[in-house]
Amino acid sequence: MPESVMDQIVSELKRSGSSYYPGRGELRTVRVVGHTPKADHYIYDIVIDFADSSERLAAKVYRSSKCGTQGARNTAKVETENLRRVYGVFEEKKLNGVPRPLGDFTELGAVVTEKITGLPLQSIIMKAALLPGYADHGCLQVAARQTGLWLRNFHRCTASLPQPFDANQLLLELEKLCVNCKGEGLDDEAIRTILSGARAILLRSKKLLPSSAVLNEFTPLNVIVTEEGIGISDYARMMPSGSSFQDVAQFMASVEALEKYPFCNRTITSQVQEEFLQAYGVNETEEAMLRVFKMKALLGMFAQGRNGKESAIRKKVMWATVMKRFIQQAAQRSMAPAA
User: What is the pLDDT of residue 328?
Assistant: First the structure.
């Protein structure tokens, strides 16, 4: 199925590709130069060759075997609409970091855009952890600051009226997650630390929280660091309105969770989070609130468990043991001071 879809995409790009790049001269060929399989889609790398230049594109093709033909079309349609909306807003504000959508391939269950070429922020964090001196030149700090600035611009450009905040509902969600994690081995002391710390913070929390479009996939793996700054390509799970803190907390939790790798220490993850938050811009009260949101995201990761085949029992047990220890340490760091 993906191959036949790509044949149709290539054929359409050969026919209309030159219209996206006026002044480039004759379109000579369209080439598929590689692909990356994902859980529910493929990412194909495409090159359009003109008389004196080339352009790189990315085609995201959803697997109909996972969600059915109509499901693939619906997902592609939602993502295309989200992408066009954000790209239009960023273009109007003269901001970068959103790929330009090309054409409409939703009937094929696909999304085609210009390719953002760079290195995932997570790879830069891993290099800084593994290679002594790699981060000494400030590349990690700069990337973290640019990430915070990009997310701040995204939330400001898509902002809506502040939303009422239900502290009791958040506490109930935390309690439910703690119960789920207790089944995986999270101890009672850590649970008490999390819940008492959260209550203390939420008692003095704001009644309204900032609202905007929410990406729901804002993680170091999806942040692409380029020569020009930061780029984000994934808009499949974007919601038009929600709590802006959700994206901020998810990013911070994903960075902190990298500490589960023995070579990725607290110094590196703290540095990334601090630079990111400073660039995003939060006050002391908001930072305390974000600790609660981040803990919720971390508990969600632990409760979800390691993805993989059920037969891989040893890997699952090892993952649960490492995550349990990590969550307990994170709870002590983030929630105990507020208790």
Answer: 74
